[in-house]
Amino acid sequence: MNFIKSYCRIVPGHVWLNGEAYFKSTRNPFVMNDFFSAIYEHARTDYRKFYKMDALSKLGFLASELLLAGSDREQPKPDMGIVFFNRSSSLAADMNYQKTIQHKEDFYPSPADFVYTLPNIVAGEIAIRNKIYGETVFYTKPNFSGDTVSRIINDAMSASGIKFALTGWIEVDVHNNMVDCLMMLCTPKQGKTLKNSPSLPAGFEGVYAGENIILDAFNILDLYKY
């Protein structure tokens, strides 16, 4: 049986970590990039590549920073994987890149935008930052589904043999100025083997103060509705 060990929820203006309010933006109206920068500064993160990322990568990166805080980022993690989902793929980056190539008289293809025109780039950014060497995959689905998320994660953890999965829904809607993220750190029931895992963040057992949450559709939906 697999469990949700810790989780992060990010929506416009608000960040929750393990059910507790972590950050609230006082800026009105909501500005997506300003919100991301404010979370970055609040978390005291130091990663220069952050400001070059597209919106989707920034959202996923910030959630992963909170969930993996205290871990040894230089320690290779062969038993940790990444499984992400969203609705619009890398549409925000695609639109930015399209603007640089759509007019013959103003044709300036931007490598900085082009590099983010795949949704799995956010998984790659996180994997590089934390030396996560296990399975990495990004699914695009029409809508959030707790059943689909739980089934795919459980299958990935049983089939690939990973002991930890950083997973969840990461959606950016630039048209509606909307961010929607539920990221979870999942693991099988903890035992002596897992305690010796190189992927185990420092103080891992103290990350979530409550009982372990079973990784199933109902629990994922409850966390998503938070």
Q: How many helices in DSSP terms?
A: 8
The domain tally reads 1
CATH superfamily: Thiolase/Chalcone synthase
Based on the structure given, which CATH architecture is correct?
3-Layer(aba) Sandwich
Helix fraction? Answer: 25-40%
State the order of secondary-structure elements, H for helix, E for strand. Answer: EEEHHEHHHEHEEHEH
Separation of the first and last Cα atoms: 24 Å
Cα Rg = 17 Å
The major sheet is characterized as: 8 strands, mixed
Mass-distribution shape: globular
- The CATH class is identified as Alpha Beta
Low-confidence stretches: 202-210
Range of strand content: 15-25%
Number of strands: 8
Structural class: alpha+beta
Q: Round the mean pLDDT to the nearest integer and report it.
A: 86
User: What is the fold-level CATH name, i.e. the topology?
Assistant: Peroxisomal Thiolase, Chain A, domain 1
Provide structural commentary.
This protein is α+β, with helices and mostly antiparallel strands and 226 residues long. The chain has a single domain, classed as 3-Layer(aba) Sandwich (Peroxisomal Thiolase, Chain A, domain 1), CATH 3.40.47.10. The protein has 8 helices and 8 strands. Helix 1 packs parallel to helix 2, helix 2 runs parallel beside helix 5 and helix 6 crosses helix 8. The radius of gyration is 17 Å and the shape is globular. About 4% of the residues have low confidence.
